[in-house]
Each structure stands twice: as C-alpha cells, then as structure tokens.
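Session log. Operator J.P. requested a structure for one protein chain; no other inputs attached. Running the standard single-chain path with token output.
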Amino acid sequence: MTNNFQPIPKPVAAGACFALLAIFLGFALGVAFGAKESAIKDHLNESGTTVLESVYHGDVDAKKAVVSKSWSYLKRSHMHGSAIGTSALVAILALLAFGARGGIANFSALAFGLGAVIYSLFWLFAGLSAPAIGSTGAAKESLAFLALPGAGLSMLGLCGTLFSVAKASFFAPSKP
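Structure written below.
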C-alpha cells in the first residue's frame, strides 16, 4: 500500500489562513452590523458632524450623502471579505484536490488569500474614514495603496490557480 500523502506547502497553508481571516472579517462585520448598526451609523454621522463647518462648509445634505455612501462601503467590506475569502479558500482547495504543486500554485494560494483580506480592509477603512474627509472618492484615493494590491493579488491568485489546476489536470504526466 502506497502512502499518497503530500504535505501542504507553507505558502498554500498561509493562503488558506488568510482566506479564512477574510471570511472571519466578513462574518464579524455582519455580526457587528446586526448587533450595533445604529451605533455604527451614529459613529459615521458624528465623524462627519465634527467637521461639518470645516470640511462640508455647513452643507448637511453633502454630509448625509457621504455618511450614507460610507455605510455602503462598510457593507461592501462585509460582502467582499465573505465572498472573496470563500472564493480564495475554494481555489486553494482546488489546487490541493487536483494536486497542483510548484511555485505558481504556491504563489497563487498565498496571493488569493492575502488579496481577499487586503481588499476587504480597503472598503472598511474607506467607509470609516470618508465622513471625516468629506468625500468617499477622496477616501478611496487615499487608500489606493490597499485597493490596487488587494484586487491585483486576488486576480493574480485566481489566474494562477486556473493555470495550475489546468496544468495539473490536462498536462501532467499520467501515473501508471
């Protein structure tokens, strides 16, 4: 009887941990929204009210629009963490199930999991900072250093996973 067990490479295990962390972040935000939605919205509103004169020039409607969009960004963080984290975890499991090994597979697992966390954090921080800045666009722009790597790593991870699974499935030498 042959032992077919192959240890899981550390980058793949780290990618799975990051994917689970992204899922946890998404779920934790969902719990927080369910338990403290009013308090969170009040915090966003207060952040804008503190700078109503200096940033919004007394325009209450402009502040309300930013606060409303900020709440949407927090919900995006929840959804992106849950969805991209789950997608990353499934992709990593596909790498393992199809026996995809090597540098591209390892990098893809790590990139996808890490990208899921970073991209979700981008939306969270943008939503929390926008009311005090006075603009959701400015908040996103100030956090581009998170958005671009997060989205980029997720896409690289997905593409590398697709390549690695296809290679392992269709181009690997068959075993007798």
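Operator note: The chain is about 80% helix and 0% strand.
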